[in-house]
Amino acid sequence: MLKFKQTSLALTAISLGLSACSTPEPGTPEAALWAHEQKMEAKAENVEDTIDELPSWYLNPPKDDISAYGVGTSTSSDIQLAVDKAMLNAKRSLADAMKGKISSKMKEFVTESGTDEDTQVISDVERVTSNLITEVDLSGFMREKVEVKPLGTQYRVYAMIRFPLGKANRVMVDKIKKNARLEAKIRSAKAFQDLEREIQEARKQIN
């Protein structure tokens, strides 16, 4: 019995010794390294948790011809601030999506009208495209999805917003008409004629 107690005490002492060795003395270089490793492990865990809880729509937002979508995410210890920041990031993403949509549509007009080698037309198209985004008021966006996830002591918010392209299309057509040379070149494009017809019909319905 005495031998068993001595063995247990020896094992306990060894265990305590190993535990003491695993935590470096504060203020030493080893302690700083240990703290850094612990911090990196915590960050890695946060990254893994974020990936595991990432909404499927965040990386693959919807795509259609009538709307542009923007997604954003942010964190904060205040839930409302996290939502506000995520929405702001989504608006930035939406602006980029709008620019891509408008640029694509303009290139389609130019290609269909057979003027894709006219450097002056291309220059006008680029100028109109760059100015369009600043003239389209994104305040008409719609909130599609908002998800809140816990992240340690903070909130992680994912947001997706949608902007109907009807208003952007109207601004685009009006802007083209103000450039007589550009309008004359691309009016023959069927895509432009179809778009203009849709806008006129929409205006009639409003009136």
Content of β-strand: 5-15%
Please tell me the CATH architecture of the domain at 57-200 by its name: Roll
Number of E-type strands: 3
Helical amount: 55-70%
CATH class of the domain at 57-200: Alpha Beta
Low-confidence stretches: 1-11, 13-20
Question: Can you put this structure into words, describing what you see?
Answer:
Strand 2 and strand 3 (154-164) form a beta hairpin. With 207 residues, the chain is an alpha+beta fold. The protein has a three-stranded antiparallel β-sheet. It is built from eight helices and three strands.
Structure, briefly:
The protein is of the alpha+beta class and 207 residues long. It has eight helices and three strands; from the N terminus they run H-H-H-E-H-H-E-E-H-H-H.
Keyphrases for this structure?
207 residues, alpha+beta, Thiol Ester Dehydrase, Chain A, 15% strand, signal
Topology:
Elements: H1 2-22, H2 29-52, H3 56-59, E1 67-76, H4 79-112, H5 119-135, E2 142-151, E3 154-164, H6 165-178, H7 180-186, H8 190-206
Antiparallel strand pairs: 1-3, 2-3
Helix pairs in contact: 4-5, 5-6, 6-8
